[in-house]
Amino acid sequence: MANRQALRELQTRLADRLQVARTQGVAASWLAVEAGGRNYLFPLSQSGEIFPWVHTQAVPYTQAWFAGVANLRGGLFGVVDLASYVSGEAPPPKTELARAESRLVALNSALEVNCALLIDRLAGLRKQDAFVDFSEKAPDAPEFFGNQYVDLNGASWQEINLQLLAQQAHFLTIGA
Questions:
Q1: What is the DSSP letter of 48?
Q2: Cβ-based neighbour number of residue 42 at 10 Å
Q3: pLDDT per residue as tens digits for the range 54-94
């Protein structure tokens, strides 16, 4: 009898939380990450699952920013070193400690690209009120860059539109 009562209370709490979520909307807007010493924001609606670092299988004759392919939950994903892709420079070698903090952020399956971005560190979730200022993207910025935000601590965060990134010819052409 006590189990039934506990189950009813749980169902009631869940229903209340779902109702609050429907009326107030989702609190977080972005996944905050760090890569190559820079701060980036990925829209949650375009981000997929987050994986710990796994060994990648190198692919010959590819761009320096293409880290290889990885088996993530039984699916093959191309792994792109985000910092290297954005900077256009070859990625520096990483220590085992740095690799342990690294994560692979898969693109949302709705984008129809089996790709994961290699980032240095997760920095949590952010919502609009975490920022005090923003500026439009610079005219010479890559097409997939969105607005640039400044948080309460004065740190700068660059939004990356993952959907536009996944449609870039340069991003899709991994051959060297």
A1: E
A2: 25
A3: 999 999 999 999 999 999 999 999 999 999 999 998 888 88
Report percent pLDDT > 70 for the chain. Answer: 89
133 closest CA partner among 119, 144, 123, 148: 148
8 Å CB contact between 157 and 125: no
Structure tokens at 66: 């293409």
Q: Maximum CA pair distance of the chain? A: 67
How far is the C-alpha of 95 from the C-alpha of 151, rounded, in Å? 30
Q: What SS3 state is found at 78?
A: strand
* pTM of the predicted structure, to 2 decimals: 0.81
CA angle, 129 as apex, 128 and 131 as ends, to 5°? Answer: 80
Span of 23-32, 37-46, 134-143 with lowest mean pLDDT: 23-32
Q: Show the domains of the chain with their CATH numbers.
A: 29-172 (2.40.50.180)
